[in-house]
Design brief:
The structure holds two protein chains of two kinds. In chain A, 41% of the residues lie in helices and 21% in strands. By secondary structure, chain A is α/β, with parallel strands linked by helices. Chain A has two domains: 1-91 and 242-261, Nucleotidyltransferase, domain 5, CATH 3.30.420.40; 93-236, ATPase, nucleotide binding domain (Nucleotidyltransferase, domain 5). In chain A, the strands form two sheets. Chain A has a five-stranded mixed β-sheet with strand order 3-2-1-4-5. In chain A, strands 8-7-6-9 form a four-stranded mixed β-sheet, with helices on both faces. Chain B is of the alpha/beta class. The longest helix of chain B is centred in the middle third of the chain and has 23 residues, at 190-212. In chain B, helix 3 packs across helix 4 and helix 7 (190-212) runs parallel beside helix 12 (330-342). In chain B, 49% of the residues lie in helices and 12% in strands. Chain B has helices at residues 14-30, 62-71, 73-85, 94-105, 132-142, 163-184, 190-212, 223-236, 240-260, 284-290, 300-304, 330-342, 345-348, 353-366, 381-384, 387-396, 416-429, and strands spanning 37-41, 57-61, 122-127, 148-152, 270-274, 294-299, 309-311, 317-319, 371-377, 401-406. The termini of chain B are close together. The chains are: A alpha/beta, B alpha/beta. At the A-B interface, helix 2 and strand 8 of A face strand 10 and helix 17 of B.
């Protein structure tokens, strides 16, 4: 039985198609003003990649900030539960999940069955999420894709004092004027966002293994900053699926269960 | 369609509670027309003491007034903007800002009784939280210099009370009565004081007894309804009408509901409690919980702001017994009043978060709860103090928690949609889906 999980995030809408526990395809589009339309596009793209017709999809479960907008889904599930299910499938040893998306960071603690035990959400400040890195990439005129690699070249640790995206941007501008190397500034940006998120994780409590998911987990500079902050290496999805698709994967898994697949 | 598991019915004394509350605000507004006096102060002030000035002395307590303003979102915004325009910081107590705003824009939250904010003749306050005395110092200034008396009650937890701590407070009370006679020009009547103290004992005792009845499954009361009931004690706990309502009307009715198995919500399958003040403009969050079959049976706030408790012989929490003493004079009345108030649960955690955690864990166990909601309330530094530590302690006791951010009196700092999503996630973690309507 084929099912779909749709994660309607604040920036991107991601789809995972599954059949009997196997991932068939994934697709992602920008979440536009019309979230349902974006979900439709992402789903069609995933169907095309897998060579599957729409009516072969037996159950669609939506998750993410815009899940209520996806009227064609069969049901919805919260990001917390979707993260738990998706991550547990990839890394069954996981007990703590850190999900850093474009606008939101969250931490989920799960038990040895993948059941949610506790969670925490940073939803009121962009300084702990991907939007922060995007704002800094604009200020530095560096492609977001290359920020991770560049920051690993840094040999100098610069503290970034501002705890707010707006003030941090002005701090970055000051560093540019002081002729600070771009790689050092980018590292400072990653360190700042890692500090924020480490603090959030510690509030909930760290229990190993710890997995990092969400779009920001693609940034190797940020992952490095988190690893250094925590003092151990995080599990980051790589081979089976990219980190930004884990919520959609969880939703697709739940869709399999609900449809009896 | 899901059929209700339990029978449910409206509270018979609901309208009476509403009328008592309305009368309270009406009496304050119209006090001068009747030749009476008005005083303002906090919900925790020793309101039994001004009662000795006569039966025509009416109060306006600030916290319930601030909450009333908060419930009216348009008025609240007007009040908050006026306060901010005057230069007061936005992160101050939001009840206090609503109250000051009401003075600044000169609008009473009960316009049917007075278009203008009625000025008190004197201010009678006590001081335990970080805002209490300053609140009324500023209010006095804004109103052109209203005479004010504040009693410092911050002498430590009840279990560590000593004779000299009691003397410290009682001494201030005696001074306060002399001050009241001076500023009002009235003679003080100790018999009225003694009667008011006895009324306060009854109000606090019976409110706790009512909350204790919520240990029953199904719970006879839900917290959203309790807000409209406990408030009478925050308005004037020493009044005969408040004590009579709790003892003679609400308590017997709730007891009867328990005996007949009448539920607050017919589909109860999950029981939670909250923590501190709710975001008053968004009480519909409690109705949202009902979609999951979840009832909030109360909180340390609703139980312990006015209710007083003690550990009973079987080790459980029950209503604090009304003191079995004869009060024959002013000093005895003031001593009894002091000892009574110092045991207030909501005063204890100003001294250490552990005291609050212990009480919350006790409630969670004895009221058979499935989870606890914790409101990181930006509008009240006093009652939010230590919530993060409470959370850890409650979790350690094996009880799931759901923190959310907000503000009791300033709706600009509460995000309803996100809080509902948080509720969804918490309910999912408890294994609960929404019930079919």
């Amino acid at each position: 039985m084929i099912t779909a999980g749709i994660d309607c995030g604040s920036k991107n809408t991601k789809v995972v198609l599954m059949k009997e526990g196997n991932i068939l395809s994934t697709a992602s589009v920008l979440s536009g003003f019309d979230q349902e339309e974006s979900a439709e596009q992402a789903l069609n793209s995933a169907l095309e990649k897998a060579g599957i017709k729409r009516d072969e999809v037996k159950h669609i479960t939506a998750t993410g900030a815009g899940m209520e907008a996806i009227k064609f889904s069969n049901d919805t599930i919260t990001t917390i539960t979707a993260d738990a299910r998706g991550t547990y499938l990839l890394f069954p040893s996981t007990r703590t999940i850190i999900d850093i998306g474009a606008e939101e960071g969250l931490v989920v603690k799960i038990d040895d069955q993948g059941k949610v035990k506790d969670f925490g959400i940073n939803e009121k400040c962009a300084a702990g999420a991907g939007a922060f890195i995007e704002a800094m990439s604009r200020a530095l005129e560096v492609d977001i894709e290359t920020m991770g690699e560049l920051s690993l070249k840094s040999t100098k640790k610069i503290p970034m004092n501002a705890q707010c995206t707006i003030f941090a941007e002005s701090e970055v501008v000051s560093l540019i004027h002081q002729k600070t190397l771009k790689e050092d500034i980018i590292r400072a940006v990653h360190d700042a966002i890692a500090d924020r998120n480490t603090s959030m994780v510690r509030q909930i409590g760290i229990e190993k293994d710890v997995a990092l998911i969400g779009g920001v987990a693609n940034n190797i500079g940020f992952v490095d900053a988190m690893n250094k902050n925590l003092g151990f290496d995080l599990l980051v999805p790589k081979d089976r699926i990219a980190p930004e698709y884990v919520s959609a994967l969880g939703a697709a898994l739940i869709a399999q269960e609900k449809s009896g697949g | 369609m899901v059929e209700n598991k339990y029978p449910t019915e409206p509270l018979k004394c609901w309208n009476k509670a509403k009328i008592l509350r309305e009368n309270y605000y009406k009496d304050f507004a119209e006090a001068h027309e009747k030749g009476g006096l008005r005083w303002a102060g906090g919900a925790w002030s020793f309101d039994a003491i001004p009662a000795g000035l006569g039966d025509d002395v009416y109060s306006l307590t600030g916290e319930p007034y601030g909450a009333t303003v908060a419930f009216n979102d348009k008025l609240a915004l007007e009040c908050q903007e006026a306060t901010e325009a005057k230069g007061f910081a936005r992160d101050l107590c939001s009840y206090m800002r609503n109250y000051w705003g009401s003075i600044l824009i000169n609008k009473y939250a009960w316009p049917q009784f007075s278009e203008e904010f009625p000025k008190p003749d004197f201010i009678w306050q006590d001081h335990i939280c970080c805002s209490h005395a300053k609140w009324y110092q500023v209010a006095s200034d804004l109103e052109g210099g209203i005479p004010m008396f504040s009693i410092d009650v911050s002498v430590g937890p009840y279990e560590k009370r000593t004779e000299h701590k009691i003397n410290y407070i009682v001494g201030q009370m005696h001074d306060g009565i002399n001050w009241l006679e001076k500023v009002t020009g009235r003679d003080y009547d100790d018999e009225l004081l003694i009667q008011a103290v006895k009324n306060e004992f009854r109000s606090c005792h019976y409110w706790s007894a009512i909350c204790e009845l919520n240990k029953a499954i199904p719970a006879p009361l839900d917290e959203k309804s309790m807000y409209s009931l406990y408030v009478l004690g925050t308005l004037r706990k020493s009044a005969q009408w408040a004590a009579d309502f709790y003892e003679k009307e609400l308590y017997p009715e709730v007891k009867d509901r328990v005996e007949r198995g009448i539920a607050a919500i017919g589909n109860e399958r999950c029981r939670i409690m909250t923590d501190t003040q709710p975001p008053w403009a968004f009480l519909r969050i409690f109705r949202y919980l009902e979609q999951f079959g979840c009832v909030s049976v109360g909180s340390l706030y609703t139980f312990g702001l006015i209710g007083l408790w003690e550990v009973k012989e079987d080790g459980t929490w029950g209503p604090k017994s009304i003191p079995d003493i004869e009060i024959t004079n002013r000093d005895e009345a003031l001593r009894a009043l002091t000892d009574w108030n110092l045991s207030k649960p909501e005063w204890q955690h100003f001294y250490h978060p552990k005291l609050k955690s212990d009480m919350m864990i006790r409630i969670a166990k004895e009221w058979k709860l499935d989870g606890v909601f914790l409101h990181y309330n930006r509008g009240c530094e006093g009652l939010s103090l230590g919530i993060a530590e409470n959370r850890l302690a409650i979790q350690k006791a094996g009880i799931p928690t759901m923190p959310f951010e907000g503000n009791m009196g300033d709706e600009r700092e509460f995000d309803l949609a996100r809080t509902m999503k948080r509720v969804d996630a918490f309910m999912e973690s408890l294994g609960l889906d929404k019930l079919k309507q």
